[in-house]
Amino acid sequence: MHRRKTASALVSIALAWPLLATAQAAPFKIGLILPMTGPFASTGRQIEAAVNLYMAQNGTNVAGRRIEVLLKDDQGQPEQTKRIAQELVVGDKVSVLAGFGITPSALAAGAIATQSKTPAVVMAAATSAIVATSPYFVRTSYTLPQTSRTMAEWAGKNKMKKFVTLVSDYGPGIDAEKSFKERVLLDGGQLVGEIRVPVRSPDFSPFLQRVRDLQPDAVFVFIPSGPAATFMKQFSERGLDKSGIKLIGDGGVTDDDLLDSMGDEAVGIVTAFHYSTAHESPVNKKFVEAFNTANKGMRPNFMAVGGYDGMRVIYKALEATKGNGGGEDLVAAMKGQTFESPRGPVFIDAQTRDIVQDIYIRRVERRNGKLWNVEFDAVKGVKDPGKAN
Ligand code: PHB
């Protein structure tokens, strides 16, 4: 009897032990959904590199949980994003979703985040309305109204009066057009053309011809990272850089990922943005050097910073919840985080779950043989102005 009791006690310990062991070491899974192929692949490449760098610098053990990142390619196709998000939540039991290279992908994942109470960290997409569509969205990228309104204010102060807008015909482009327009009209400016171009595989030539015909002082541009490279190529091929029409815009047009390959046609372009690789701060210097070293000299762009800061927000939330991290508690611990990002000081507005940050005015300059977005002015602590609309 005694022997049997001992034996059964041993058996139950033996059975329980692996359970205990797995419970303690249960990984904390992050489902990272990015466009790794297709027209937005540069966004995926940048964010993947930044997530890897963050983990290399900060370890993969947070509050007793081993961090495991499950990277999935949605090709920038929202139907894929939705299917993958579903699989990650139901099949892989991820605790957090993250990534979202473009607005339609973020929007497609929102319902899944809400139903499953899974925090979804938007590292790239930038349409104002995204975060309000699920209480589980938290954003570490930026919004188009933040950059576009700041650009319009600067243009008004710098003797530009007559404008044309040229934007990609979807969420962030519509946001950019609206915010820019509202502000220039308020400042007594004139809008002589509003041009919308297709998001995928656009041929910009006919649209650029229209800009030329309208003869504005400046054309304000938003094209997403990736297709923006084609835009810049056609802009100079069509000689618009020499037409006297100034190119201004959201900083995606002089994307740090590609800027140095654009050539001298890009020199002098003024944009408003939240991040430049050339941002002068010790935190950014360290970030850029580490990123370069880990990625064969590749420059981090704004997408990389959105990914890097997104990981920071997730790590700190997991620490704050002492590794327990249910969806609601994690979101609560993401709200209000304040820190110094490579882009400068940022905070996650507890009310909107959106990022508040400085927006810089930058001019492309050649320094030490390379092209950089050199920041020369800043508007501090910009909240998303799109929220009021
Ligand atoms: C977006 O789809 O929200 C988006 C994508 C690329 C950008 C900016 C915004 O550069």
What does this structure look like?
By secondary structure, the chain is α/β, with parallel strands linked by helices. The chain is built from 11 helices and 15 strands. The protein has helices at 2-25, 41-58, 78-90, 103-116, 144-157, 171-186, 205-214, 228-237, 282-294, 302-320, 327-334; strands at 28-34, 61-62, 65-73, 96-99, 120-122, 137-139, 162-168, 190-197, 218-222, 246-250, 270-273, 338-341, 344-348, 355-367, 370-382. The strands form 2 sheets. Strands 7, 8, 9, 10, 11, 12, 13, 14 and 15 form a 9-stranded mixed sheet that branches. It has a 6-stranded mixed sheet with strand order 2-3-1-4-5-6, sandwiched between helices. α5 (144-157) packs parallel to α6. It is globular and about 60 Å long. The protein starts with a helix and ends in a 7-residue tail after the last strand. Bound molecules: P-hydroxybenzoic acid.
How are the SSEs placed, and which strands pair?
Elements: H1 2-25, E1 28-34, H2 41-58, E2 61-62, E3 65-73, H3 78-90, E4 96-99, H4 103-116, E5 120-122, E6 137-139, H5 144-157, E7 162-168, H6 171-186, E8 190-197, H7 205-214, E9 218-222, H8 228-237, E10 246-250, E11 270-273, H9 282-294, H10 302-320, H11 327-334, E12 338-341, E13 344-348, E14 355-367, E15 370-382
Parallel strand pairs: 1-3, 1-4, 4-5, 5-6, 7-8, 7-9, 9-10, 10-11
Antiparallel strand pairs: 2-3, 11-14, 12-13, 13-14, 14-15
Helix pairs in contact: 2-10, 3-4, 5-6, 10-11
Bound molecules: P-hydroxybenzoic acid.
Amino- and carboxy-terminal Cα gap: 76 Å
| Sheet having the most strands | 9 strands, mixed
Give average pLDDT, whole number. Answer: 93
Structure summary, number of beta strands: 15
Rg value: 23 Å
Shape: globular
| Helix content class | 40-55%
Query: How much of the sequence is in beta strands?
Result: 15-25%
The distinct bound ligands, ions and cofactors come out as: P-hydroxybenzoic acid
